[in-house]
Amino acid sequence: MNIAPVTPDHIVNLGKAFRASKALFSAVELGVFTALTHGPRDLEMLRTDIGIAERGARDFFDSLVALKLLERDEVGRYRNGPEAAHFLDREKPTYIGGELDNFNKHGYPHWQFLTQALKTGKPQNGAATGNRFLDRYSNQSVLETFTEGMTAGARLVAPAIAAKFPWDRCRTVIDIGTAQGALPVEIARVHEHVTGGGFDLAPVRPHFESYVKKQGLSGRLRFHAGDFLRDPLPSADVMIMGRVLHNWDVITKTMLLNKAYNALPPAGALIVYERMIDDARQVSAPGLLSSLNMLIMTEGGFDYTVADLTVWMQHAGFYDLRVERLTSELSMVVGTK
Amino acid sequence: MNIAPVTPDHIVNLGKAFRASKALFSAVELGVFTALTHGPRDLEMLRTDIGIAERGARDFFDSLVALKLLERDEVGRYRNGPEAAHFLDREKPTYIGGELDNFNKHGYPHWQFLTQALKTGKPQNGAATGNRFLDRYSNQSVLETFTEGMTAGARLVAPAIAAKFPWDRCRTVIDIGTAQGALPVEIARVHEHVTGGGFDLAPVRPHFESYVKKQGLSGRLRFHAGDFLRDPLPSADVMIMGRVLHNWDVITKTMLLNKAYNALPPAGALIVYERMIDDARQVSAPGLLSSLNMLIMTEGGFDYTVADLTVWMQHAGFYDLRVERLTSELSMVVGTK
Question: What are phi and psi of B22, to 5 degrees?
């Protein structure tokens, strides 16, 4: 009988994983992948393009090769790997670097205080009670990083939502907590009969409107300003709440589901998409760690399973609930009024 | 012809990897694995044992399950997985949590400044020029975290060095930069004819002596105090420099190799072990990221390949160089005088 030896490799790899995250964040921050848009660059060209010192440059670029973000050819020139070219080139509409910037500027430093968050049960980012997004959005630079991060997140999931929901059966959509509106933009782009827009706090309006205008969709998508903790929600055939409910405690979660139910017309549909934890809470490390992120960042937020959400949605009155996998991490639950 | 679709999964996983590191660090800091030494604990017992608030406890423990550090049985009790039981239980001699504490207290916060380190080429931890270990060791708590971290690192590699070098052919060993002496302790434990000790800065002495005494080896292993930047090295049949050279610039690296050569008796051997970068600098992410760690932490340090080291060792006079793989990350190069 063979017994596999116990090695420390898994533990050591986990312990050092933060270095790989930071190498990626710095590469995005410094514009490495965007600098390689127009073709390969040798060490010295790339180094001067992005403005870093000689000392760490070669190790940095070779780290990105070893992390399978860059490739290096036989004469030592670096180029983007296929994933970096698609998702990390700032000039492309598929750019998701905004989410990485958000992790770099907010996630990584706040996670420093995980132990303290666990001991106290309290957020470690100075979150005020009430709608913390109001505070966050009062700082323009924070607002920008955050809405661009949300756009990156929405881009990851929008093609699947545009493809997997029966949009031919409805005319209007409202995305609740829409940020720049990347999700309704993708739906409207693919389904030319759909109109609607997004709902978010008033300071988000210019970010939404400029993004939507750039996509040539200002005629079909408009911004609705409001605070969903105090105001009623606008109505549409389909309402979407994506990565919204996890920010809030269970009382607010169910209040928001009730508000959505009340705003919908008869036979209207609510789509909730989220990084769902598996029902057994056994394998979904990203969902469970996202929930610890809510511990660090919010007063009462937490991530949840499809089973949890099903109970809350049924309680709000939704029926005919169905689950669809969207990406390797995210799923949507659709309910009908 | 099938073309694999480009997915963002790899990028997103890298970007979130820091959360997994921090969950592990907090678990070590809070003593989760040590609390489970004597058997499984349910959520409430484990939570109160380690002193954390209710809010994040279940997500935290379930994250550790999803990260394959803990296991949870059918009645909801948590227990250590085999790797955590072996390497993360503070009561065991195989404990490597010291290295994770070191990452948690020093590595993670300093890596916050990677972009700045790349831009300037300068360390971001306030490292003074000269022997920065002198500064570090003047703070007792930093000294303790650091030497325990080094012990964890030495434990990972010591069994392989004890097994893969022909110790039957020599009588004495000196470990240069020995910290608590975990490496000579393991060699002396396995090879009962070997005597010697470790060389490090004077403030390390009590940490070495108490560790060696606890292993019952005070009669065979003694501490040699000195600063290898200024003082000659003590002599022995075999000298070891492990994870030392990467801290220094190339001038200091070669100076240290020359000093080791001069200290050795004829036919003596030098073992250099390190997280070697692959010669093509193509696949060894841990080695390349370790070199970026040196950028952040030191004035001139960098990691290197076996090919680099071979040149330096030959230049110092060593011959008959041979390489041995020690662990999945570390290798040793042995040279003869």
Answer: -70, -35
CA distance B295 to B297: 6
What would the two tokens of residue B121 be? 């080429």
* Per-position DSSP letters for A3-71, written without gaps between them: -PPP-SHHHHHHHHHHHHHHHHHHHHHHTHHHHTTTS-B-HHHHHHHHT--HHHHHHHHHHHHHTTSEE
pTM: 0.93
Helix axes A182-190, A140-164, angle to 10 degrees: 30
Q: Do B18 and A14 touch (CB under 8 A)?
A: no
Give residue-wise pLDDT tens across range A270-313: 999 999 999 999 999 999 999 999 999 999 999 999 999 999 99
Put simply, the answer to whether A103 touches B18 (Cβ < 8 Å) is yes
In this complex, the residue of A60, A96, A328 whose CB is nearest that of residue B292 is: A60
Collect all residues of chain A within an 8 Å Cβ-Cβ radius of residue B295. 55-56, 59
Which residue, A237, A221, A241, A94, is CA-closest to A161? A241
List helix spans (H) across A54-198: 54-66, 82-87, 97-102, 108-111, 114-120, 132-137, 140-164, 182-190
Question: Does A153 reach chain B within 8 Å, measured CB to CB?
Answer: no
Q: Do A118 and B26 touch (CB under 8 A)?
A: yes
Contact of A71 with chain B, judged by CB distance below 8 Å, is answered with no
**ipTM at complex level:** 0.93
Q: Which of the residues of B are catalytic?
A: 246
